[in-house]
Records
---
Amino acid sequence: MIRKIGLLSLLFVLLSACSNDDADQLIAACDAPTDVTATAISHHSITITWAANDTSSSYRVEYGLSGFTVGNGTALITSNTTVLIDQLEPNTSYNVYVQNLCDTDNESLRTALYNLSTTAAPVIPEFKPQLSELNLFLGPLNSLSISPQAIPYELSTPLFTDYAHKQRLIALPAGTTMAFNGDGLPIFPDQTVIAKTFFYNNDERDLSLGQHIIETRILIKINGTWQTGNYIWNEEQTDATLDSEGSTLPVSWIDLEGTSQTANYKIPSNTDCFTCHANANTVKPIGPKLRSLNFDIDGTNQLEQWISNQQLSGVSSSASVRSLPKWDNTSVSLEERARAYMDINCAHCHIPGGHCEDLSTLNLAYETPLEDSDIVEQAFLIDYRMSFYLDGISMPLIGTSMQHTKGVDLIQSYLNTLD
């Protein structure tokens, strides 16, 4: 108690000793800025603005990665109530605060730390030397984490490629949409990028054991024309290099039954890509036909999602689009499943204008009536060309090195029902 009284007395004496001139120099701290907002957010910069609530000669803006220690960030001094923060990393969270510097000996409290994030870098619609330069993925490339600037998609019945898994995505230029054009391919705007990455899980029973990524095939629409390119992944799985030559790569994996499997995976050349993707000498995508996209994924219809997100225009409901059935959905008729399988695996060549137009009378597009498809007349030949694997003779002609046994069983079962 005696000590407390002594301290209070000492403080009283010191205050009493201050002259009026000294008291005038004890200026209250100036007010902190308010209404801090972020505008013009891009993948590499953010503009910060605020309201000044006190006379100020300048302001301090400090920023750093989210969670940075105040005082250890990057500081900017400005006399304006707005500042551009640039040279930032894309798709990254930052903290920022603003402080009034009223004079050399007087500054306000700091504003609260504001959390801000840059956008993902725009997808580059060019065939750069390395896949990473296209900005299709976030973080480590081999995570295959799709950029929010791109749209992942799946097909109801996919193309068979030696049991490889595939990740598919479409990247549209900012402010554009795909346009409805019937059940087939939508109309894609120029600078659209379509990518398909092929990989094998090391062990299908345990996905935590990783994957082996083989290639990423790219289509880019440039001045109204689709161009093809192929990126081959390096052994380190850190990036992929543009390659037009094609090659064969031995791959191995363990299937769901625990059996070791191998394949001599064929990476296509640019000539191979043209063979399958060309129709009447014009390159086109094969997979993303609207009828192949019109189905539910995790309870949500894929096309409805695109329409809702304004990524597909010219159609108000998925009900306006035919649905290509899943080839292995046994609740659908055998004929529908077999025709769907032939549509995605064979029809890019066996249609008018396709690579095999002058070599075969078959028209295997799903919408072609059976009596116009020549399937009945060519049933024996179809069965023969699919019943074994011999390079250059077996069907499909390009992109496989083995039979798809379940697919062959499906087609043979269907052919056996035909007169």
---
Amino acid sequence: MKNKLTLRLDDSLIKRAKKHAKQKGTSVSQMVADYFALIEIEDTSPSKKLPPITSSLTGILKNTDIQEQDYKSYLEDKHLK
């Protein structure tokens, strides 16, 4: 069953999407459908699942204020001094 979906986009983006669709010999609707189908495939692919050890470690650093710069500073201190 197909239903209608309304998207609100900038005029310039709509023009580019229509131009791209015409070049590819498809419609903007089909491009959007293909995109969402691709996302669904990516979300359910086995490669998205983490290995057991990695999975067991996720979330153990909750409530920490560690920033990327802190890690970079740690590495500099460890390897450059």
---
Amino acid sequence: MTKTTLYIARHGKTMFNTIGRAQGWSDTPLTVVGERGIKELGVGLKQFDLTFNEAFSSDSGRTIQTMEILLNELGQIDIPYTRDKRIREWCFGSLDGGYDAELFMGVLPRIYGTETEFRNLTYEEMANGIMEADTAGWAQPWDVIKERILSGFTDIAQKIEAQGGGNALVVCHGMTISTLVYLINPDIPKQSLDNGSVTVLTYENGQFTVDIVGDMSYRAHGAEVLDGRV
């Protein structure tokens, strides 16, 4: 059986990404710069002759828009495509749409103490802090976040595996991808994932392995092709 590999891309840069607002379950479209970045990614993936059995994204507009660009650039618009709400971004509740700096540099440090650096918080602590600050009651507890993300990706991998293995293309969100990586291998340091970066997982014998996190080489190569530098 061919091994199962998930190529997980973070969506293209959006309006909220550009002005530094927490997007969560709220949504804004890709900017012109964001569309160009995903075009670069699609061209780069195609240059490496990557083909995909199926495509998957969250049900957020920004991931759907990203996937449409990618499949067009890959020339693979006819492969099966599933939208799964389980691989949405974290929900920030009433903090959705607020400025990133206020959430991560203000709200969370105020909850855990002014000397707390939010990057040192565990994902569970971040989830608990967001729930405490959320006045709408929409934010999800850590147990719900980790279960939906892990089950969503496990089902994707098992579906591809049941077909004999191969590659799946997945588009989702920065914190969703980072959380998944942590759940698979907690020893991998946290890192901020760029728009259009690719994280690669393999799935064999019921286990995920993290091969690479936040790879920007596909985008870089695609940019060179589009700019006529190669």
